[in-house]
Amino acid sequence: MALTVKHLEQLQLDLQNDPGDYQIELREGEIIVMGPSDIVSSYIGAQLSFLLKLWVSPRRLGLVFDSSGGFILPNADLTAPDVSFVSGSRMPRTKRYFSEIVPDLVVEIKSQSDRLVKLRKKIKMFLAQGVKVAILIDPDQLTATLYRPNQKPILFRDGETLTIPELLPGWELQISDLWPPVFEEEE
Q1: Over the range 57-81, which residues count as b (16 or more CB within 10 Å of their CB) and which as e?
Q2: Fewer CB near the last or first residue (10 Å), C or N of the chain?
């Protein structure tokens, strides 16, 4: 039996008083429960959300969401990308429920336990569902790969600049700005 968003909502209610911190997604009729991500991946998600929001908000381009924002896709999956963006013209109002609008941009960040094969499959699924641009960030290799439908992925390395002119005209992301700083230890 394929599970639905209603099943996922019931599971969320059941887990309401559980002390664990779970992220739950519905993919291809199966509920996927994920634990918290590692601290580096969390930092990168927060940093990218911050950098995106600094550009998007003053220009009123749309909305930036973190990994808690759930999107119901046309294939009935309910997923929460690590970072996502929806242009204001496509989402003039928000409501207190999962969005039924496909994000324009999704970002997946490889955590310590993730496998790149599965993340690339997820990126392909997002693009097939109507996402315009996807980014896969690999902190282990210090890279970000940009995906667009029907195009070859573009790999950006530490020190390079990523742009998305079709969604965020003028915005530039220095890949090196994604990584956590290293603080010198006091003696």
Answers
A1: eeeebbbbbbbebbbbbeeebbbbb
A2: C
- CA dist 76 and 125 (Å) reads 12
The single-letter DSSP state of residue 99 is B
DSSP reduced 3-state for 39: helix
- CA 7/CA 93 separation, integer angstroms: 26
Predicted confidence (pLDDT) per residue in 111-144, tens digit:
988 899 999 999 999 999 999 999 999 999 999 9
The secondary structure of residue 131, as a DSSP letter, is -
Separation CA 5–CA 25 (nearest Å): 9
Which helix (H) or strand (E) segment holds residue 62: the answer is strand 62-65
To which residue do tokens 């994000």 refer?
Answer: 103
List, as one string, the DSSP characters of 146-176.
Answer: EE-TTS--EEEETT-EEE-TTTSTT-EEEGG
